Amino acid sequence: MKKSAFASITLALAAPLLAANVHAQAFGKADDAVQYRQGAFQIIKAHFGALQPVVKGQVAYDQAAVLADVEILDQVSNLPWKAFGPGTEGGKARDDIWLDEEGFKAAQKKYLDSLGPLTAAAKAGNLDQLKKAFADTGASCKACHDSFRD
Ligand code: ASC
């Protein structure tokens, strides 16, 4: 084998490993990526969960408080996805995340898209609208968990 061919085959084989390494590098190590995304989901859970007693009518509807929670959701919901890079398997993540990247992306999009109506409802101060949007967002959480989380 010619030296150049050997070099390009070596590079082709090593490239995915390098990519994984570079990605993990952004978080120091793979476990940092797992902790990062779990941390983001904890924040999401806390602020989505805070809406639950409101839509169930267990606490008084406070438009400003709801909007504050939803605005945090809007921000933090952008964070976890880039921490699912190659070589970051672990936590409760199923391998399907890496085997079905399109499906995982579609599930992310469904969730992120659901935040539009949730935000609109929170801004409008309309509790009925909020209930509907909350249910839709919750359904998108569940759908993703059912397919991609252990
Ligand atoms: C939550 C939460 C989830 C979702 C999901 C919706 O409040 O922590 O994981 O809603 O249970 O079905």
Helix/strand layout:
Blueprint: H1 3-26, H2 30-49, H3 52-55, H4 63-76, H5 96-99, H6 101-124, H7 127-148
This protein binds ascorbic acid.
The site of ascorbic acid (ASC) has 7 residues, from helix 2 and helix 7.
Provide a descriptive summary of the structure in words:
The protein is mainly α and 150 residues long. 75% of the residues lie in helices and 0% in strands. The protein contains seven helices and no strands. It has helices spanning 3-26, 30-49, 52-55, 63-76, 96-99, 101-124, 127-148. Helix 4 (63-76) packs antiparallel against helix 6 (101-124). The longest helix has 24 residues, at 3-26. Bound molecules: ascorbic acid. Ascorbic acid binds at residues 45, 48-49, 138, 141-142, 145.
Quick tags:
Four Helix Bundle (Hemerythrin (Met), subunit A), 150 residues, 7 helices, binds ascorbic acid, 75% helix, single chain, mainly alpha
Q: Short description, anyone?
A:
With 150 residues, the protein is an all-alpha fold.
The CATH architecture comes to Up-down Bundle
Q: What would you call the structural class?
A: mainly alpha
Instruction: Output the radius of gyration.
Output: 20 Å
Given as residue ranges, the uncertain stretches (5+ residues, pLDDT < 50) are 15-19
Mean pLDDT: 89
Total domains: 1
CATH homologous superfamily annotation: Cytochrome c/b562
Beta-strand residue percentage: under 5%
Number of alpha- plus pi-helical segments: 7
CATH class: Mainly Alpha
Tally of DSSP β-strands: 0
Shape field: elongated
Main pleated sheet? none
Residue share in helices?
over 70%
N-to-C terminal Cα separation, in Å?
46 Å
Order of helices and strands: HHHHHHH
Bound molecules: ascorbic acid
CATH topology value: Four Helix Bundle (Hemerythrin (Met), subunit A)
